[in-house]
From TrEMBL, chains A, B:
Domain of life: Bacteria
SUPFAM superfamilies listed in its UniProt record: 6-phosphogluconate dehydrogenase C-terminal domain-like, NAD(P)-binding Rossmann-fold domains
Entry protein name: 2-dehydropantoate 2-reductase
Residue span(s) of domain Ketopantoate reductase C-terminal: 186-306
Pfam family, one: ApbA_C
Catalytic reaction equation(s): (R)-pantoate + NADP(+) = 2-dehydropantoate + NADPH + H(+)
Keyword Transport (UniProt): no
């Protein structure tokens, strides 16, 4: 499979490395100039499951990606706020048989992708792999993980491509699973981020530490209820109890993990994706004439924390 | 005036020192054994407005306070969670002409005091002085401040005592002002704590830093609205715009200040008074069949932060 990985940060690097090691043709598109320079000069360097690896892959700024149109897949693993621009800039790389796959954190990316691409060309999913960018020239990839994806429509070619992608990814060790309703799954993952990612960032702790506090359960339930309320309006019926237990499974599965927004803001002083997580729920609740005060407050708190730290996107 | 200062922490020390320096008879009651020991051995030591002072005052554990009944005033400046016990233990110090004055942070102390004492014996107010306990044997008292107090009823003796107290305090340099409706004032001060104290504690910043963030105003308004909603049910009409501007005045007046809960939790790893601030609004909203989701979430977040730090009250 020929894959253009759009966004070669921590997560993009894991997928690129595993896919390339399994014999797929991988090309990288990266916005951050410091990172891009390192990729072009020294290749992709990572501590991959305990082993130092270095792999040279073609890497380009998005504007400079060669206008080949034989990519099978453009895999988006960038920061949420960069997605719209990146999709638009990479449109020339979409040939007649190219699919987009978005495995990014956050809700609402489906709307962004289908603004530029036909619904029949978009695969959606999410990943429970973790990744950490330690330096512009190094990523740290530990912990077990998995990913799941599916097609946005019943179009047979698209469904077939979803199955093929699952197989290719699994053969590469990425533990992929096919989703019947990827929108549902993305929303359910949104609950994980809207609780653990946000609260660990505000409270500066890891997932297990948060989970050990006696009040964690009550907070998780309250926030998930707001997600469910908005999901209902978007045709997604979220089982609150199930979604809560999905969140709470993370305490043991990825307990030592400091979630992505923690890494962005607390470690790297960069803006977070909270607008695509709790912020999505807050603004869409408002759109439907509802109130999601907790998501609204959490979004506000994260933004104040960003403002306090003068978070700057040095991309 | 003969004053028993119940709680010789940072704030109690300021009042005790200033009152004693102005010639009043001051006795200290202190629960924390480490602190008490230092008071008994070395006296009250402080950096008071830039000058090192040391003053020996009689200091006792609450149970050991001599059963004299000629105190004019028992001034409560302890932590909220200790108030009920302390009032009960100090009842033997209340003679026929002794008044209680509570200037503590937090809402609901009036109910605690009037459970043990007649309403006609209780003065209530609050203070904008700041204080910081640097070590068990040292307090740091900088910044300008003021305090305000009034009587809970129209009883002429009580009103007279409120006026006398204001005069004595002002003569001691404590800049006291008479309040017509102290309950209102306490609630209004509650808004300052429920926004700045809580958010600076969660976001680990000082008052000015929080005030400089573009989102501060919006967050303050939302939280103050919940206070106003509960106040209304308790016969206190809070002017939201006025209360908000009262909060925002603090950005310049006490900008460099790290509020009390920040000091308790972040600096000293002790539990906070949030249950008497946002927690009061959250539980009382519920009692009146209303919802105060922001105060509820903020209270929960502070408690999770306490639990994360294993905050232990080493009193």
């Amino acid at each position: 499979m020929k894959v253009l990985v759009a966004g070669a940060g921590g997560m993009g690097s894991r997928f690129a490395l595993k896919l390339a090691q399994a014999g797929n043709e991988v090309v990288l598109a990266e916005t951050w100039s410091k990172r891009l320079q390192s990729l072009q000069t020294d290749g992709l360097q990572a501590d991959l499951d305990g082993q130092e690896v270095q792999l040279k892959l073609p890497a380009y700024a998005p504007e400079a990606v060669p206008r080949e149109t034989d990519y099978d897949l453009v895999l988006f693993l960038t920061k949420s706020m960069q997605l719209a621009d990146l999709v638009r800039i990479l449109l020339p790389a979409f040939g007649p048989h190219t699919y987009a796959l978005c495995l990014m954190n956050g809700i609402g990316h489906e709307q962004t992708l289908t603004k530029y691409l036909p619904r029949e060309r978009v695969l959606l999913g999410n990943t429970m792999w973790t990744a950490q960018m330690t330096r512009p020239d190094h990523v740290h990839l530990a912990d077990d993980g998995s990913c799941e994806l599916g097609s946005l429509t019943d179009d047979p070619d698209q469904v077939k491509m979803a199955v093929t992608t699952v197989n290719v990814f699994s053969q590469a060790g990425l533990k992929a699973h096919l989703l019947e309703d990827p929108r549902y799954s993305v929303f359910r993952k949104g609950c994980v981020n809207g609780t653990l990612n946000t609260l660990c960032t505000l409270l500066e702790c890891n997932v297990a530490e948060f989970g050990q506090t006696p009040l964690a359960h009550e907070l998780v339930v309250k926030v998930v209820k707001e997600f469910a309320m908005v999901g209902e309006k978007e045709g997604l019926h979220l089982d609150v109890a199930e979604a809560v237990s999905h969140v709470e499974d993370c305490y043991s599965v990825i307990g030592e993990h400091y979630p992505s927004m923690y890494q962005d803001l607390v470690k790297n002083n960069r803006p977070t994706e909270v607008d695509y997580i709790n912020g999505y729920v807050a603004t869409h609740a408002k759109k439907y004439g509802l109130a999601a005060p907790l998501c609204e407050l959490l979004t506000g708190e994260v933004h104040v924390k960003e403002q306090l730290q003068n978070a700057k996107n040095d991309v």
